[in-house]
Amino acid sequence: MGSRANGAAAERLTSTSNGRGPVDKEVDFANYFCTYAFLYHQKEMLSDRVRMDAYYNSVFQNKHHFIGKTVLDVGTGSGILAIWSAQAGAKKVYAVEATKMAEHARALVKSNNLQDVVEVIEGSIEDITLPEKVDVIISEWMGYFLLRESMFDSVICARDRWLKPNGVMYPSHARMWLAPIRSGLSDHKMEDYEGAMDDWQGFLKETEAYYGVNMSVLTKPFSEEQKKYYLQTSLWNSLHPNQVVGNPAILKEIDCSKVTVEDILKVEASISSLVTKEETRLCGFGGWFDVHFKGSEENPAECDVELTTAPSQDDGTHWGQQVFLLQPPVHVNEGDEILVNFSMTRADDNHRLMKVDLGHSIKQSSGKMLPRVENKFFIE
Amino acid sequence: MGSRANGAAAERLTSTSNGRGPVDKEVDFANYFCTYAFLYHQKEMLSDRVRMDAYYNSVFQNKHHFIGKTVLDVGTGSGILAIWSAQAGAKKVYAVEATKMAEHARALVKSNNLQDVVEVIEGSIEDITLPEKVDVIISEWMGYFLLRESMFDSVICARDRWLKPNGVMYPSHARMWLAPIRSGLSDHKMEDYEGAMDDWQGFLKETEAYYGVNMSVLTKPFSEEQKKYYLQTSLWNSLHPNQVVGNPAILKEIDCSKVTVEDILKVEASISSLVTKEETRLCGFGGWFDVHFKGSEENPAECDVELTTAPSQDDGTHWGQQVFLLQPPVHVNEGDEILVNFSMTRADDNHRLMKVDLGHSIKQSSGKMLPRVENKFFIE
Description:
The structure is a homodimer.
Chain A: E1 13-14, E2 23-24, H1 25-31, H2 39-46, H3 49-60, E3 70-74, H4 80-87, E4 92-97, H5 101-111, E5 118-122, E6 134-138, H6 152-162, E7 163-170, E8 173-181, H7 185-211, H8 219-231, E9 235-237, E10 249-255, H9 261-265, E11 266-274, E12 280-295, E13 300-308, E14 321-332, E15 337-346, E16 354-363, E17 373-379
Parallel strand pairs in A: 3-4, 3-6, 4-5, 6-7
Antiparallel strand pairs in A: 1-2, 8-10, 8-12, 9-14, 11-15, 12-13, 12-14, 15-16, 16-17
């Protein structure tokens, strides 16, 4: 950031992308990486007990994958996964981190007496060189709704460059889920939007009266901007299980040992969800993910571990769920079928953010089909 | 942002800087410009009555500067200053805007029937070409505490490239002010900081107990990060005049027709402020600015207009003031003299942000000198 001399342009580009070409590294840093350089942010993730327990258990209940083996931790952050891998018996752990957090990881490794096993490398996984291929790649790469941040591209790159042919991915599998939900947020956001538009009307009057400028030509773009902000941007929320009003359905299944970046550029699914609650409101859809640590087919885990971010009363995670709100909410009944066409791709101007086309129709239990509704959303 | 082919590196750099070299334009956009592309943000500024009144009056009470003249509006945003300039009688107005807001400015100009006078140009003022030099440069470039955002560099560039020798700057002058203040924020921020450190202690215990990793080596960097965040980062606040406990003093005076970028890379001043309130607490310092529209020496305004962002009961602005908090607050009395050495430069990694060295000592009315205290602050 800031001043940089006219260097070789090639070094400034990463290979992560939205399928359209390379990304400028400094822009990527300004937009994305910089948050991870803060200890406060690392602490938030380290304080997520569900997340920590899942990774801890996946490693220590599967020591056979680690004892005497070489491990690569992609995006090591504070170094926690690398440290656990070493404590579980790894012979050598390469812990790669793109931000200055790598310095803290190095200090943490040393103060836990693991510097002979864990080597912290500051750099992008796409650029750095390792002296050898590894038996295990471990990484906590999941963003909101699994793919926000597109960090998995980097894990795939690491796998293709550095994993031995029979190597194991931690986690091994990932799934994206969607379910119809009820939520007071629909009403709140509509109130916020309408409030913003009322305020705009007052603003128009004042600007004309006091300053002699008619700004009504901006009403349409302003309203589109506010609509996008209040109504079309997915929200972080920690849903209660009672808010899920129909059977959740799988949108995407990923085998981390085989998936390519091309496979995840687009998430497209047609799903169906039976409403399970009597007389409720369909206010939108909640999206979340789970990952599993099953090892590989040739070299399975002894103890499968699941990390789920599904709505939970007591076991919520810092990921929450992503909520896509419908305006207006729709009354639905037990036995109604909600048919959804879901399509998610990367944002045009930032490969780490997403845009969603979500169309749904409702087949009431009587057999009557309500008209199809199409909505666009933005995962920002 | 996002994908960009390997183009000519020179086009990607701006000349704005922290005195250390050119800045990558896409990074600058990701870090800075992007907020200004939102109508919501423009509306916030357009709704600031003090700001709007000052610029409106400066133009319409000084029509002699505009009638039949050519004008350049640097960073036109929605186009408001350009529109007023045209309405005040300008023959031609060039309205330059770096973001897509330029499209809205163009629409606004057209819907107010001024497209024959106002030409909106989308681009950086450092790059674009005008067909002629101008009589007036008008711009609303002031950031928090005047210089945050370093937009004035762009205005200076515009002046040096495009202002006729006897041209006029709107505004013509600017001043930075500092005053000792009292504020409950000192206590709040210290509580927040101590809370974060207490929480950290609990986190350390849990991480060792549950996960077998000793993170105490991170306590020092964590505490420095939290200290910077809670105690050393200047705050936006809207101060009440009663919170000003001593005479405000001028830190910097700028003649917009003569100042260079070099002149504003560093703001350095030694000031003295007499405490004007009986038995109060010195909790920190408040910084603000004013600008004046005086025209030029050869071609003065008929009606001087002032825009001040000093603490005010009724005439606050969206700029508020910037507050630099002291820990702990100090008891002071009417007649005590607060001596301040103030030094502000641009942040190393982002020329649009600032770092401040603020040393102060108190000479009590009895004559006794309290020891000097040095503090660092960050304007983020």
